[in-house]
Design brief:
The chain is mainly alpha-helical. The protein is built from 13 helices and no strands. Bound molecules: zinc ion.
Length: 258
């Protein structure tokens, strides 16, 4: 198990996965050989094995992305332009170095959370009201943005971002939930990345308290973002890219230093 670098509880799953891919590779004659087969046959020894694997997954978009886009447009009440949507699809992966933030962004984009409305539709709840405020229907937008319990967090987070970067972003659900920035913010690519990461952290904290009626504290968001900054610093350092870390994070580090 140590040889494969997996926890003992995951070892059986690894064997199943390995057996499944090996059998498929032997029995199914794809022509031409797929990228995943090439990588598999190389024993992951092709240059950048893990990155290639992730790239393949990223390139493989589910056929119903158009449907997801339409659902978001309906919920947000505004059309999402093509460029912003493609940026949002790409963002879940480029946004952060840690897998947890990536996973959360991916699941939000794909509307993969259990809301009161979804549970009611499936007969898992008696009504579709928000279980936090009990005043409005618990749609995805309500649960992540509109509900009183979470909205106050977004107000202060956007104020904080505006103060840190000397900009005037207007708080709205497309920005807070999907990280869709208005055009011409005047921010560098690195600072746009930080804004998206700061917003993804907002969603991460909200999801942590998915069923809580307590207002979410701004301090929790700031502490979480500080933790992410330390992790990112380490990863940028390992990759010898500390100069980029500074470009992404310096306004935030200056704010918490003061
Ligand atoms: Zn609510």
């Amino acid at each position: 198990m140590s040889k494969h670098n997996v926890h003992s509880k995951d070892f059986w799953k690894l064997l199943q996965l390995r057996s499944c891919i090996t059998t498929a590779d032997r029995k199914v004659k794809f022509a031409p050989v797929s990228d995943i087969q090439k990588l598999w046959r190389s024993g992951w020894k092709l240059k950048g094995g893990a990155s290639r694997f992730y790239d393949m997954f990223r390139r493989h978009q589910p056929p119903n992305y158009e449907g997801i886009k339409l659902s978001w447009e309906k919920d947000l009440g505004v059309p999402i332009d093509r460029e912003s949507w493609e940026e949002a699809i790409k963002s879940w992966y480029t946004i952060a170095r840690d897998m947890q933030t990536r996973l959360i962004s991916f699941r939000i984009l794909n509307r993969n959370y259990w809301t009161p409305v979804k549970m009611f539709r499936l007969g898992l709840r008696k009504n579709d009201m928000c279980w936090r405020c009990d005043k409005e229907r618990g749609t995805l937008i309500h649960m992540l943005y509109e509900c009183d319990v979470v909205h106050s967090l977004w107000v202060v987070v956007i104020q904080y971002i505006n103060n840190a970067l000397k900009v005037e972003l207007r708080e709205n659900p497309a920005l807070c939930i999907l990280g869709i920035l208005q055009r011409k913010t005047g921010l560098s690519q690195q600072l746009c990345l930080w804004v998206k990461l700061a917003l993804a952290t907002g969603n991460r904290v909200i999801l942590r308290h998915w069923k809580s009626k307590e207002k979410i504290s701004f301090k929790e968001w700031r502490d979480e973002l500080t933790k992410i900054a330390s992790f990112e610093q380490l990863i940028y350092k390992i990759n010898n890219k500390l100069d980029i870390f500074v470009k992404v994070w310096s306004p935030f580090l200056e704010m918490i230093g003061n």
